[in-house]
Amino acid sequence: MAIYSIADMSTAMPSTIYRKMVGQVQRKAVTLRVLSQAGALRRSNTGQFITWDVKFTGQDAGAVNMDGGSLRTAASDVPVPTQLGFGSYAAPVKVTDDLLWRGGASAGLGSDINPLTDAVAMNIRDGVEKWVKVVNVDLYAATGSANTLTGFSSAVAPSGIYANINQSTQSGWASTVQGNSGSLRSLTLALMKTHRRTIAVASRMGGPDMCFSNGALMDAIETLFESYTRINYQPSAAPGIPAEKVTMNPSAITTAGGKINRDGFRAFYWENQGMWFIEDPDQTGQGFTNAANALLFLNSADVELQYLPPPGANAYLQDRQVLEAAEQDMGPLAGMQLELIKRGRTQYAHEFDMTGKIQLVVNSRNAHGWLQDVQ
Predict the structure, then answer these.
(1) Within a domain: residue 254?
(2) Contacts by 13-22 with C-beta closer than 8 Å and gap 24+?
(3) Which of 138, 166, 167, 294 is the most exposed place for a label (fewest CB within 10 A)?
(4) Chain centroid to CA 126
(5) Quick one: CA torsion of 134, 140, 145, 149, rounded to 10 degrees?
(6) Is residue 175 part of a domain?
(7) Hey, is 235 helix, strand or coil?
(8) Residue 67 lies in a domain
(9) Contact partners, residue 256, CB within 8 Å, separation at least 6
(10) Phi and psi (nearest 5°) for 212?
């Protein structure tokens, strides 16, 4: 068994193969990488399950008569415990003897095979790309069944059970999901403003700061802002009324967790609303009437991506300089640990499993929402 992170592979793999892997992860796993950079990725320390406490009502406050008046009744809001399991994901890697012979030998993990020889590194790279891609897809589509994580389509919902809390019992925790009864309607700035404001009223965290869109809806959103991004020689708004301000496709996205290089996807910042729009081709409202016609609004500070470290990871120390260098390309995702273990020899080939456990956590369900049935 060996424990690897993407950062470790930066030194074990040939630089050309590593750079290609970084580029593919940046392009294929947009939401996973953006949320990681925004501070969501963290190592779990709760063991078998992810747990946290949710409070729904809070304490009481109000005016009082201090001239001998009655005391207000003290409120009690007992925290409600939650529980989520981890999704388990594996990327099998197969390396034939012919590839090993042609790849040459180098010092490594075992006398019979070194899984990071130059030739085999390409297969490992493909495995990492597949692993992060499947996780990125499931961040939207997975329901928590069949060993998957619980994606946004299930976590950000107005009803149902999430993390063992029944929405019918705690109605104030519901996400803001606004549709049009399955009938498509044109997307407008006013519609997005209203949706964001509604979430801000429902959530203690205020309005969302990120909106994730698929490519087709990103085209529609950009069209709404085209008049504000052209060079205007006349005022674009009436006197005293500020024009919409938007920064289209900057080289980097700035979040509370740091900067994210914008590679392979579109993004722009709506300054008036304090919100980033980010394009991810995997974005979908799984189970919705119009799955491809929904926008996901998130409070990024409320979202977590918790991973469970492999066995033996407690004694595993990463090189700090290597990790910091890799984080310049990948952000915190570079430090997430996977287990690479040899399955065994099958005929003239060696097989490995690259395995990891990860879960999406939405701490406050009402801090997020979906805007459905738009085009």
Answers:
(1) yes
(2) 13/116, 13/121, 13/124, 13/125, 14/118, 14/121, 17/118, 17/121, 17/122, 17/125, 18/125, 20/125, 21/125, 21/128, 21/129, 22/329, 22/330
(3) 166
(4) 21
(5) 70
(6) no
(7) coil
(8) no
(9) 38, 39, 300, 301
(10) -100, 135
The string of pLDDT tens digits covering residues 103-121 is 554 434 444 445 555 656 7
Structure tokens at 100: 């090993």
Q: What is the pLDDT of residues 158-203, one digit of tens each?
A: 989 999 888 888 878 889 999 999 999 999 999 999 999 999 999 9
Tokens of 254: 């700035």
> What is the domain range of residue 119?
2-53+79-170+187-231+242-371
More confident residue, 225 or 76: 225
Q: For the chain, where are the E strands, in sequence order?
A: 2-5, 41-43, 53-54, 80-81, 87-96, 161-162, 165-166, 176-178, 210-213, 246-248, 252-255, 258-261, 267-270, 275-279, 295-298, 303-308, 337-345, 349-362, 369-371
Residue type, 113: I
Task: Work out the number of other CB atoms within 10 angstroms of the CB of residue 353.
Answer: 15
Q: How far apart are CA 210 and CA 35, in angstroms?
A: 10
pLDDT of residue 353: 86
- Considering the domain boundaries, does residue 70 fall inside one? no
Average of per-residue pLDDT values in the chain: 80
Domain count, the chain: 1
Mark residue 171 as left, alpha or beta (left: phi above 0; alpha: psi -120 to 50; beta: remaining).
alpha
CA-to-CA distance for 36 and 305, rounded, in angstroms?
Answer: 7
Residue 320's pLDDT is what?
Answer: 60
**Rounded to two decimals, what is the model's pTM?**
0.82
pLDDT of residue 144: 94
Interval 133-143 mean pLDDT: 95
